C-alpha cells in the first residue's frame, strides 16, 4: 500500500531540559542579584565616619494629620537655618502597624535617617537586625536623654546598657467616661468612686442594668498582640506599681497580682459588661459604651462630641490616683544604620526634642512630650488646656513594655492565652496564666 | 554554540524567557530560599549586616508541628476546604449552566456574580461585618434564633462563615471558567437528548457534567490552592484569626511568625509544610477526577 502523503518529518528538537534549566537559573540569579543591589541601601560600612558626617537627611513621622503637621513645622524651622543639611519629611509607609513597616524597611534597606514613631516593643529586634544606631555613642548622648526624661529613661535602655531609642512622647493610658451615661446610671460623674475592682464592677453593672449603654467598657477583644496594652497591661502596672510583663528574664503576670487583674477582666466579660466582639465604630462616641481606655490622643475625637470625664485605671484595693502607674504607650525616635549623615540626624533629633518643639508637639497633637516635670515646663499650655492636665500628671508615673528580644512573640502568646481564658472564658485564668508564663519563660531561656 | 546552549528553537525560548524569569524570581527562588531558611536559625538582617545562621536540621519543623496554634490552623484550613471546595465546584457549575441557558438580562446577571470577585476584599469584609456582627442585620432578622456568641466570635461558626464569604466572593471567577467551557459543549447533544425525552436534570448530569470535566479539574485545583492561601479574610473578618485561633490559617501564622514576630525560620517551615499539603491535595484531586 502506498501513501498519498509524504512521511512526516521527525519533530524538531526543542531546547533540552538542561538548557531550559540553565537559562532559568541564570535568569533567576541575575534578577535576584540586580533586585537586591538596586532596591536596597546597605548599612553604611564605616559607622564611625557616618556618625561624624553631616548632610541632607530624610525624616519619617507617623501618618496622622497632627503628627505630620508637627513634622512639617519642625523640619521647616530646621531647614531655614541649615541649607546644607536639608531635612526631607515623609510619612511612615502604610502598613498593618508601624512596627511591621519599619521591620520591612530595615530588611529592604529603605529606612530613613531618622524616625519619630519607634515602638519600644520592636527596638530590641531591630538592634539585633543591625538596623539602629547606638545613640549613646554620640557625645553626651546618654546624658541628653537622661536629663530630658529622668528616671523613666532607664526603661528604654537596651540590654547592653546603651540607648538605641530616644524617649520622645507618651500617651499615658487612663479611663475616659461619658458623664451623661454615668448620670443616667445613677453614678456621680464628678466622683464615680470606681477606684477598686469591687467598686468598678458595681459601677459597670449599674451602667448596663440601667440601660444607659449597651456595655460599660469596650476594649478591643481581638487577638492582635498589642491589644493587651489597652486592657490588661495598664491594670497590671497599676496593681504592681510598675512591674513590667517580663522582669529579670521571667514572666511576672502569673503572680497573685497579675492573676487578680486577669480575674477582674474575666468578671467584666462573664457579666456581659464588655462585648466579646469588636466594635464596628467608635463605641464611646456613638454611646454604645460608657467607658473607654485611652490616651490623650482621644481627647480630640471626643471634644465637642460628648461630655467626658477622666479617671485612673482601677486597682484591687483602690489606691489613691497619685500612686497609680499606667502604661506609657510611648513612641520614640531612632537613627538608622543606613544613614550616611548620622551627625545631622542626631542634631535634628535634639532640635526636635527641645523645649520649643515639645510645645509645638503639645499644641499640634495634644500628645505629651516625655520630659520630667512636664507641667512645670509648659504651665501655659496646661492652663489653656486643663483637660490634658490629668494625663500630664499621670505621665510621671508610667512604665512601658519590657525591652527584650522577641517581645512581639511573647506578647502574642500572652494575648492568645488572655483571649481564651479572660475574654472567652474557655479556660480558667488560674490554669491558663501559669501555663503560658511557663511557655514564655522557656522561650526567654532559649533566647538568652 | 547557540544551538548547543539554547536548542534548535532559540526564538521560542526567547519568547518564553520573560515568563521563565518571572517564575524563577517570584516563585522558584523564594521557594528554594524558604526551604533553605527552614533548616537554619534565621532572622532577617539589614542589608550589609552579617549574622550567623546556625544549621538546626529539623528543629524549625519540630517547632511548627508541635505548636498547637499551627496544628489548629491546619485543621481550620481542612474545615475551610471541606466547605469551600465542594460549594465552589457545584455552585459555579450550576449557576454557569443557568446563566448559559437564560436569554434575557444575561449581561446583568453575569456582572452581578462577577462584581464581588473584582471588588476589594477589604471593602466587602466591612459589609459582612455589618451583616454578621452581634447587632448586625442577619441577627436582627433571626431574632431569638441568632447564634450566641455571634457568627464571627463563635468557635464553631467563625470558619464556616469565612468559607461562605470566600465562596460567595470568588464564585464569579469560577462561573466565568465554566461559561467558557460550556461554549465548547455541542448544542446538538442537548437537542438530541431533548428529542429522546431527557429532562433538564438528566441533560445536566449526562451532558454538562462530563462535558466540562477538564474545567472541573481546574476549578478544583485552583480552589484548593486559593483556599490553602487563605489570609485576608481571617485577618480582617475575625481580627487576626479569632476567636481563640478558631479561624486562623497557616498563611496567617506564616505572616505573624515571619513578619510580626521575627521568626522567618519557623514561618518557612510552616510554608514548606503547606506547599507539601497543597501538592498532595492537588495530586489526589487530579487522580480522582481522572478516574471519575
Automatic annotation (TrEMBL), chain A:
Q: Output the superkingdom of the source species.
A: Bacteria
Could you tell me which InterPro entries the record lists for this protein?
A: SBP, TAT_signal
Q: Could you confirm whether the keyword RNA-binding appears in this record?
A: no
> Which keywords label this protein?
Signal, Sugar transport, Transport
PROSITE patterns named among the record's database cross-references: TAT
One Pfam family recorded for the sequence: SBP_bac_1
Q: Which family does it belong to?
A: Belongs to the bacterial solute-binding protein 1 family.
**Name of the protein:** Multiple sugar transport system substrate-binding protein
Automatic annotation (TrEMBL), chain B:
Q: Which InterPro entries does UniProt cross-reference here?
A: ABC_transporter_permease, MetI-like, MetI-like_sf
* Keyword S-adenosyl-L-methionine in record: no
Q: Does the keyword Transmembrane helix apply?
A: yes
Domain ABC transmembrane type-1 residues, every copy = 74-285
One protein family per Pfam: BPD_transp_1
Q: Which domain of life is it from?
A: Bacteria
Protein name as annotated: Multiple sugar transport system permease protein
Amino acid at each position: 500500500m502506498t501513501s498519498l502523503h509524504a512521511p512526516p518529518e521527525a519533530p524538531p528538537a526543542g531546547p533540552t531540559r538542561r538548557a531550559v534549566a540553565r537559562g532559568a537559573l541564570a535568569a533567576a540569579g541575575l534578577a535576584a542579584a540586580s533586585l537586591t543591589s538596586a532596591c536596597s541601601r546597605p548599612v553604611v560600612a564605616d559607622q564611625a565616619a557616618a556618625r561624624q558626617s553631616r548632610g541632607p537627611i530624610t525624616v519619617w513621622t507617623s501618618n496622622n494629620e497632627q503628627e505630620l503637621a508637627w513634622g512639617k513645622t519642625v523640619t521647616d524651622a530646621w531647614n531655614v537655618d541649615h541649607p546644607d543639611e536639608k531635612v526631607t519629611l515623609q510619612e511612615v509607609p502604610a502598613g498593618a502597624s508601624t512596627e511591621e513597616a519599619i521591620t520591612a524597611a530595615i530588611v529592604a534597606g529603605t529606612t530613613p535617617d531618622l524616625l519619630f514613631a519607634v515602638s519600644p516593643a520592636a527596638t530590641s529586634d531591630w538592634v539585633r537586625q543591625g538596623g539602629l544606631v547606638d545613640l549613646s555613642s554620640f557625645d553626651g548622648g546618654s546624658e541628653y536623654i537622661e536629663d530630658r526624661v529622668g528616671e523613666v529613661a532607664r526603661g528604654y535602655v537596651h540590654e547592653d546598657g546603651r540607648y538605641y531609642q530616644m524617649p520622645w512622647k507618651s500617651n499615658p493610658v487612663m479611663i475616659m467616661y461619658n458623664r451623661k451615661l454615668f448620670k443616667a446610671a445613677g453614678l456621680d460623674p464628678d466622683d464615680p468612686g470606681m477606684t477598686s475592682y469591687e467598686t468598678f464592677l458595681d459601677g459597670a453593672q449599674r451602667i448596663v442594668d440601667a440601660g444607659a449603654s449597651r456595655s460599660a467598657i469596650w476594649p478591643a477583644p481581638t487577638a492582635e498582640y498589642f491589644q493587651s496594652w489597652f486592657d490588661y497591661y495598664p491594670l497590671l502596672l497599676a496593681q504592681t506599681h510598675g512591674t513590667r510583663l517580663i522582669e529579670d528574664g521571667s514572666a511576672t503576670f502569673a503572680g497573685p497580682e497579675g492573676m487578680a487583674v486577669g480575674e477582674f477582666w474575666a468578671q467584666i466579660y462573664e457579666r456581659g459588661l464588655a462585648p466579646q466582639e469588636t466594635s464596628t465604630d467608635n463605641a464611646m462616641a456613638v454611646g454604645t459604651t460608657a467607658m473607654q481606655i485611652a490616651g490623650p490622643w482621644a481627647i480630640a475625637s471626643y471634644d465637642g462630641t460628648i461630655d467626658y470625664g477622666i479617671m485612673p485605671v482601677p486597682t484591687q484595693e483602690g489606691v489613691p490616683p497619685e500612686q497609680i502607674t499606667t502604661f506609657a504607650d510611648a513612641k520614640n525616635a531612632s537613627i538608622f544604620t543606613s544613614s550616611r549623615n548620622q551627625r545631622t540626624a542626631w542634631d535634628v533629633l535634639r532640635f526636635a526634642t527641645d523645649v520649643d518643639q515639645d510645645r509645638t508637639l503639645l499644641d499640634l497633637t495634644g500628645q505629651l512630650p516625655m520630659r520630667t516635670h512636664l507641667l512645670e515646663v509648659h504651665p501655659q499650655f496646661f492652663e489653656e488646656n486643663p483637660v490634658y492636665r490629668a494625663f500630664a500628671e499621670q505621665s510621671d508615673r508610667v512604665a512601658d513594655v519590657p525591652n527584650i528580644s522577641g517581645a512581639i512573640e511573647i506578647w502574642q502568646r500572652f494575648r492568645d492565652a488572655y483571649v481564651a481564658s479572660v475574654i472567652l472564658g474557655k479556660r480558667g485564668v488560674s490554669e491558663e496564666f501559669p501555663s503560658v508564663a511557663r511557655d514564655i519563660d522557656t522561650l526567654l531561656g532559649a533566647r538568652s | 554554540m547557540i544551538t548547543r546552549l539554547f536548542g534548535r528553537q532559540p526564538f521560542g525560548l526567547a519568547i518564553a524567557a520573560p515568563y521563565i524569569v518571572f517564575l524563577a524570581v517570584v516563585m522558584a527562588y523564594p521557594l528554594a530560599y524558604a526551604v533553605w531558611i527552614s533548616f537554619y536559625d534565621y532572622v532577617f538582617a539589614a542589608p550589609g549586616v552579617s549574622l550567623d545562621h546556625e544549621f538546626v536540621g529539623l528543629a524549625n519543623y519540630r517547632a511548627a508541628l508541635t505548636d498547637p496554634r499551627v496544628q489548629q490552623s491546619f485543621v481550620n484550613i481542612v474545615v475551610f476546604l471541606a466547605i469551600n471546595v465542594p460549594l465552589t465546584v457545584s455552585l459555579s457549575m450550576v449557576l454557569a449552566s443557568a446563566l448559559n441557558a437564560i436569554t434575557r438580562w444575561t449581561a446583568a446577571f453575569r456582572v452581578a456574580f462577577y462584581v464581588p470577585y473584582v471588588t476589594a476584599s477589604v471593602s466587602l469584609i466591612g459589609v459582612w461585618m455589618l451583616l454578621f456582627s452581634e447587632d448586625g442585620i442577619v441577627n436582627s432578622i433571626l431574632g431569638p434564633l441568632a447564634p450566641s456568641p455571634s457568627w464571627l466570635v463563635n468557635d464553631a461558626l467563625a470558619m464556616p462563615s469565612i468559607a461562605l464569604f470566600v465562596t460567595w466572593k470568588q464564585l464569579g471567577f469560577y462561573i466565568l471558567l465554566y461559561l467558557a467551557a460550556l461554549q465548547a459543549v455541542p448544542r446538538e447533544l442537548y437537542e438530541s437528548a431533548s428529542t429522546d425525552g431527557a429532562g433538564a436534570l438528566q441533560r445536566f448530569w449526562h451532558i454538562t457534567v462530563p462535558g466540562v470535566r477538564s474545567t472541573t479539574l481546574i476549578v478544583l485545583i485552583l480552589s484548593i490552592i486559593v483556599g490553602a492561601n487563605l489570609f485576608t479574610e481571617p485577618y480582617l473578618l475575625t481580627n487576626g484569626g479569632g476567636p481563640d485561633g478558631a479561624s486562623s490559617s497557616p498563611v496567617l501564622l506564616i505572616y505573624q511568625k515571619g513578619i510580626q514576630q521575627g521568626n522567618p525560620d519557623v514561618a518557612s517551615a510552616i510554608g514548606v509544610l503547606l506547599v507539601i499539603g497543597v501538592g498532595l491535595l492537588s495530586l489526589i484531586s487530579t487522580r480522582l477526577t481522572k478516574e471519575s
